[in-house]
Design brief:
- The structure is a single chain.
- By secondary structure, this protein is α/β, with parallel strands linked by helices.
- It has a single domain, classed as Vaccinia Virus protein VP39 (Rossmann fold, 3-Layer(aba) Sandwich).
- Helices cover about 35% and strands about 20% of the residues.
- It is built from nine helices and nine strands.
- The chain has a seven-stranded mixed beta sheet with strand order 5-4-2-6-7-9-8, with helices on both faces. A two-stranded antiparallel ribbon has the order 1-3.
- Strand 8 and strand 9 form a beta hairpin.
- Helix 2 packs across helix 5 and helix 2 crosses helix 6.
- The chain is globular and about 50 Å long.
- Bound molecules: S-adenosylmethionine.
- S-adenosylmethionine binds next to loops.
């Protein structure tokens, strides 16, 4: 298959996200660009730490997340950008506002309000947490500084032109977009970190469900994951590359972790 990539400017993510691929993104983007594909699919896109940082794109791109807040935010940024920016002007970085929005059920809001709520909570939360958010403060500029934020959102808006945005379980999106010319980049919740996200969407047993699903695909795939024997045991026939990374969240001391890039197809 002839390579069919177009250059594209890497753009920042809209907000910090626990498990965002800040340190691994460049390496993953290089690996992705080495594999010929016409369709690129991210079944677990989160805040797009890899999706948005790539500098080459194929004809067809798909982002997906089972968290409705994620899909809503990207759809709003893609289709209702101006109205969204107008709404954000009314947001303030205060603990009181944070707590009020946190306790507002997303389902009670319009899509515009829901996207603004999610962006606000994600930018303010300590460590970009999703499952258990707390108000994060540091000694730098407030994270919800709208004049600084709008140019970032504008870049994301431009980058999302023509992207398919799905809101499905990973298995459904993999089956829907599977083809010999498809490349899936998978970044599921890490082993024993499933509770960092909406717990009902992905539990410990879903790692085996994902491995079984990937065994049957016609396309190719790359997955990032923490290096634990339980995951290695699920992928006996895959290629596994080990990488050592150092992470720090807030003021906690840096922690070294071993991650793996698993690939197949
Ligand atoms: C490790 S995070 C992805 C981080 C992303 N790569 C980034 O840079 O921001 C995992 C994501 O998988 C999503 N997720 C959890 N269960 C899912 C499921 N069953 N199907 C699809 N997405 C799911 C979560 O909502 C979360 O956004």
């Amino acid at each position: 298959m002839q390579r069919m990539f177009a250059p594209v400017p890497p753009v920042p993510t809209p907000a910090p996200y626990v498990g965002g691929k800040r340190l691994l993104a460049k390496r993953l983007a290089l690996r992705i660009a080495e594999i010929p594909h016409r369709t690129y699919v991210e079944p677990f896109v989160g805040m797009g730490g890899v999706f948005l940082r790539r500098s080459l794109k194929p004809e067809c791109e798909v982002m997906n997340d089972a968290n409705g807040d994620v899909a809503c935010l990207f759809r709003i940024l893609q289709r209702h950008f101006e109205a969204f920016c107008d709404m954000l002007k009314w947001q303030l970085t205060s603990r009181e506002h944070f707590e009020r929005l946190k306790s507002t059920p997303a389902e009670s809001l319009t899509d515009l309000e829901r996207a603004a709520r999610f962006l606000y909570l994600q930018r303010i939360s300590f460590g970009g947490k999703v499952g258990s958010r707390s108000f994060g403060t540091n000694h730098r500029v407030a994270r919800f500084d709208v004049p600084r934020l709008v140019p970032i959102l504008e870049q994301i808006h431009a980058r999302l032109a023509g992207v398919w945005i799905e809101h499905l379980d990973f298995e459904a999106v993999i089956r829907k977009w599977d083809h010999p010319d498809t490349l899936f980049y998978l970044d599921p919740p890490y082993w024993a970190c499933e509770h960092y996200y909406v717990a009902s969407l992905f539990g410990p047993a879903d790692h085996a469900r994902l491995a079984a699903c990937l065994r049957g695909v016609n396309g190719r795939w790359i997955m990032s994951m923490n290096d634990v024997p339980e995951i290695r045991a699920l992928y006996p026939d895959a290629r596994i590359e080990t990488t050592d990374l150092t992470y720090s969240v807030g003021s906690t001391s840096p922690k070294s972790v071993s991650e793996i890039i698993v690939s197949g197809g």
